[in-house]
From TrEMBL:
<keyword id="KW-0378">Hydrolase</keyword>
<feature type="short sequence motif" description="GXGXXG">
    <location>
        <begin position="22"/>
        <end position="27"/>
    </location>
</feature>
<dbReference type="InterPro" id="IPR002641">
    <property type="entry name" value="PNPLA_dom"/>
</dbReference>
<feature type="short sequence motif" description="GXSXG">
    <location>
        <begin position="49"/>
        <end position="53"/>
    </location>
</feature>
<dbReference type="GO" id="GO:0016787">
    <property type="term" value="F:hydrolase activity"/>
</dbReference>
<keyword id="KW-0442">Lipid degradation</keyword>
<dbReference type="GO" id="GO:0016042">
    <property type="term" value="P:lipid catabolic process"/>
</dbReference>
<dbReference type="InterPro" id="IPR050301">
    <property type="entry name" value="NTE"/>
</dbReference>
<feature type="short sequence motif" description="DGA/G">
    <location>
        <begin position="182"/>
        <end position="184"/>
    </location>
</feature>
<feature type="active site" description="Proton acceptor">
    <location>
        <position position="182"/>
    </location>
</feature>
<dbReference type="Pfam" id="PF01734">
    <property type="entry name" value="Patatin"/>
</dbReference>
<dbReference type="InterPro" id="IPR016035">
    <property type="entry name" value="Acyl_Trfase/lysoPLipase"/>
</dbReference>
<feature type="domain" description="PNPLA">
    <location>
        <begin position="18"/>
        <end position="195"/>
    </location>
</feature>
<keyword id="KW-0443">Lipid metabolism</keyword>
<protein>
    <submittedName>
        <fullName>Phospholipase</fullName>
    </submittedName>
</protein>
<feature type="active site" description="Nucleophile">
    <location>
        <position position="51"/>
    </location>
</feature>
Length: 397
């Protein structure tokens, strides 16, 4: 096996590994991750991947960012697999699906043509970034963890396709008479392989795809990058979705590396924005206390925030409200501009119907409606903080 690096008794820099999970069409997210890592000067010595993660990893190892980006921004489902005509009627679709099951999965000849066109095996073997992948033998579901040097010459593209053979949706890939399936059947996030190949620290990119994601038991320092937002169906390849996912991956990576704050949104962590976030959080707390003094039953903002499960406590109410009204998560914000984006999207008439609760003229029915509409009431609290008077400190009884 070609896993272990040569013995070197001198002090060496930590070997970084990028671990790319499988997830089909969600793989566009990893292209945004790579862009951010490159901008930040973070370069791995090792990349391990499963399924689409191995295909992306091969392009990253070849420094083909622009090729990967352009491919994901143009590729559609019919470019990856043989599909029925878009205007096929229901009987034709049923016949197609019966044929898929009978033939053992959809034909992925289009994907094979893409891999053949963009991946140069000799250049991949010469890359300073070492590549590893996971696939599974169909018979017995035996996992195969392979560093590039373990793969016979002329077979790298085959094993990359084998790693991405998402059976039964896609056909098993046959190499030298052996049928192979998607590596996600055994290890969708190959952290152990990265450690075996000599990694000292990991950056793992999770697409929350189907398959088995094993616990990371390496004990190595690990940064996990995962989207707060849904990334789309794993078999639906669409340029607009890909563009969105790339931006999410880019900002999530910068956040994971300490360059941004927030959870659902990419928010600046410069001094001014952080001061604004702290001021917003304090005023939000004062608004809640003021309402609770008058209407103790109105505790619903806390419930809405618990359900949103946002980790940045100061920004959580603003992020939750922004999400509810559909603020675009693929943009960069400051605390101030995120607040303005919320104000532009929210339904002001609906929110202002809660004004009596803040002004002390509300009735029991208003408080009951707030209790029934926790997310809308949270929006009303945020709106009040952003547009209303600054409250003095309120001591909650």
């Amino acid at each position: 096996m070609a896993w272990n690096r040569p013995v070197n008794n001198s002090v060496h820099a930590p070997v970084r590994a990028l671990v790319l999970a499988g997830g089909g069409a969600r793989g566009s997210y990893q292209v945004g991750v790579w862009r951010a890592l490159t901008e930040l000067g973070w370069r791995p010595g090792i990349i391990t991947g499963t399924s689409v993660g191995s295909l992306n990893g091969a392009m990253f190892a070849l420094d083909l960012y622009e090729t990967a980006r352009d491919m994901w921004l143009t590729i559609r489902s019919q470019d990856v697999m043989e599909l029925p005509e878009q205007n096929a009627d229901l009987s034709e679709l049923h016949a197609f699906l019966r044929d898929v099951v009978r033939q053992g999965g959809m034909d992925v000849s289009p994907l094979e043509e893409i891999v053949e066109r963009v991946l140069d095996e000799d250049a991949l073997r010469a890359s300073p970034i070492r590549l590893g992948l996971v696939t599974v033998e169909q018979r017995g579901l035996k996992a195969r963890e392979l560093a590039l040097d373990d793969i016979p010459h002329g077979k790298v593209k085959d094993y990359l396709l084998a790693s991405a053979a998402c059976f039964p949706a896609l056909r098993a890939h046959i190499i030298d008479g052996v049928s192979y399936l998607d590596g996600g059947y055994r290890d969708n996030m190959p952290t152990a392989l990265a450690q075996k190949m000599g990694a000292d620290e990991l950056v793992c990119v999770d697409l929350e795809g189907v398959g088995i994601t094993r616990p990371n038991r390496t004990g190595l320092p690990t940064t996990l990058i995962r989207s707060y937002w849904e990334l789309g169906d794993i078999l639906h390849f669409d340029p607009d979705t890909a563009r969105r996912n790339m931006e999410l991956g880019y900002y999530d990576t910068r956040r994971a590396m300490g360059c941004l704050r927030g959870c659902a949104y990419a928010v600046s962590c410069d001094a001014r924005s952080c001061q604004d976030a702290a001021a917003f959080a304090w005023q939000f707390g004062q608004q809640q206390k003021s309402v609770r003094e008058k209407y103790p039953v109105t505790l619903t903002a806390d419930l809405a925030l618990r359900l949103a499960n946002l980790k940045d406590a100061e920004l959580a109410p603003l992020e939750a409200a922004a999400e509810d009204v559909g603020v675009d998560p693929t943009q960069f914000y400051t605390t101030e501009t995120l607040g303005k984006a919320f104000l532009e999207k929210c339904e002001k008439d609906r929110i202002e119907s809660f004004a009596p609760l803040f002004e002390g003229s509300g009735r029991a029915a208003d408080a009951a409606r707030a209790a029934l509409l926790p997310n809308t009431f949270l929006q009303a609290l945020v709106y009040r903080v952003l547009t209303g008077p600054v409250l003095p400190e309120v001591i909650e009884k």
